[in-house]
Amino acid sequence: MSRRPTQKTTLLLSLLACLSLGQEQLRAELQMGAQLADPTISVEESSYIVVRIAGVESPAQPTIEVEEGDASGVRTAFIGSGKQVFQSGNKVQRIDTFRYSVAGVKPGTYSLVAAIEHEGETFGTDAVKLTVRPMSDAEKSLAPEFSIEIEKREIFVGEMLPLRLVISTSSGTSPEFHNVAPEIESKGFVMQPLRGLFRAEADAQGRDRHFFEGNCEPLRAGDLQLGPATYPMQLAVRNRSIGRATRKQYKLTAEPITVKVKPLPAAGKPESFTGSVGRFSMDINAAPLKLKQGEPISVNLTIAGEGNLPSIDAPLLTGNVDAWKQYDPSRSDSREENRNRRNPMAPKGNAGRVTFTHMIVPLETESVIPPYEFSFFDPETGSYRTLRTEPIPIEVKADSNAVATRPSTSGGPVPAEAQADRPPPPTTPPPLEDMTDILSISELDGQAWTDARKPLTQSKWFWALQAPPAAALLALAFIAVSRRMHGRDAASGWAGTYPPCAELLGDLESKPMTALELYSGAHTYLLAWEEQIPATIRSGLDPDLATSLDEIRERHNYLSFGAPAGADAPGPVDKDEQSKILNILRSLPVHV
Q1: How far apart are CA 508 and CA 213, in angstroms?
Q2: d(CA 433, CA 413)
Q3: Is the CA virtual torsion 271, 273, 275, 277 positive or negative?
Q4: How many other CB atoms are found less than 10 A from the CB of residue 57?
Q5: What residue ranges define each of the domains in the chain, with the CATH number in brackets?
Q6: Torsion, CA 522, CA 524, CA 526, CA 528, rounded to 10
Q7: Omega into 232 within 30° of 0, i.e. cis?
Q8: Nearest CA among 579, 491, 497, 587 for reference residue 537
Q9: pTM reported for the whole predicted model
Q10: What letter does residue 437 receive in the DSSP assignment?
Q11: How far apart are CA 539 and CA 244, in angstroms?
Q12: 246-257 pLDDT, tens per residue?
């Protein structure tokens, strides 16, 4: 890996380039530097590397390499980039900044360098030393714990199993969760989407409990393994000696659990059983109950209870099914909002109801709707049960035209001999007052189409009406520009001596922006402040102010790199939140 060219080499390259190519910006002008925030961290703790590049327009993202030490002993991740522009007299200098997090994985001493490819050559920074020490007993006691909790270890095939993925943290820490669900291996199960994150009461040791919850359904018998599960998170621990929080990144792993899944018994299985497992009830209603032969009846069948509701099939019509034309039922699912009182462990999604809408057409003059049957296996009693509705009386009147108007039993067109029985269509339309369908244009006697009017743009009234809105828009534009200029003038403290930062502060004050734009701007402002303010002033910050700055950095990192797609709402951020961030930035101490 080559280093930055020496002064003699730089001069020689400059002369050659000026004579041959006449370039305005030369390869030898590239300058790189790396700075490590905390040179000593513990295992699972994180520090930050800031890489600065000057003299190149839009440089590529550098790579962080381990020059000395085991490369697997540290874990690096790109956080974000920014640009800083400084003006000194007539010269404008631009610096591109790249930030990386570096977490300790194994104890040891490591030399880290940042490298970049530029015009066919590799440039690198001087090495920075990072020392990773083992975790102390006190730090181990603060580490989060991750586990899988289930209610039963022995279930039947198809029985819905509630589960929780629990994260417990020490009361002296501040967990920072990613807006993603844990990943869990579930071979042999059907996993429903996990819900969360929820917070439960502290355990007996005083540790806070947070959990995701869901349901899984076993598909086959045998000893099945649920897990392991993994979840990434960050933990902040307030260190009052240095006036700020230290952060540790964890990739939590929950140990797997073995579940014994028993097959459903073959004895006593009813013919109408289709695989439903749980405890259910069935309700029915139908309409209309008085109709003509060939007209449809809508039958609503509601299955309610606890079990594998997403997998259940519709109840079956019994009796003389050939006397009915049946259509495929539609379904509507809903979940219980209240938790299961009989089983507090059960998530909300374990209980609910499914409504099937079954359209049937009597092909004969039937007197009742036959019973419907629904069979399921009850895991608590270990036996099958069959629910059966009562026959519903109906009144079906015979219709001489029913054979022509009702659907055919095959679902196809009405036969030609049936069509011959239809009365001929009327030769003249009925009076307008008796018509109930859409009027035909050809029947609108006495009405004529009118000529299209001339375009609005040729009317003087159109342009006269556009004048007030145009004037209002110009006034609003003038107000916006005035506010922006006022925001620039309002830049206080040290930022007033740096025009780019003063402009940024003015934009943050005057422009409506999304959360991502607000925190990205504030983060860039903080980077510029850290460049100009000595470490003695930065280390002596008020603890509350230090906490506020940490929160800004964390929010920026989450919105930029940790949040899922769509997490940043498109609308502007709340004005109170924007004012709060501005007040924090204005309160930063000035170098005197």
Answers
A1: 40
A2: 33
A3: negative
A4: 7
A5: 7-134 (2.60.120.570), 139-262 (2.60.40.10), 275-397 (2.60.40), 471-586 (no CATH)
A6: -140
A7: no
A8: 587
A9: 0.51
A10: S
A11: 9
A12: 777 788 889 999
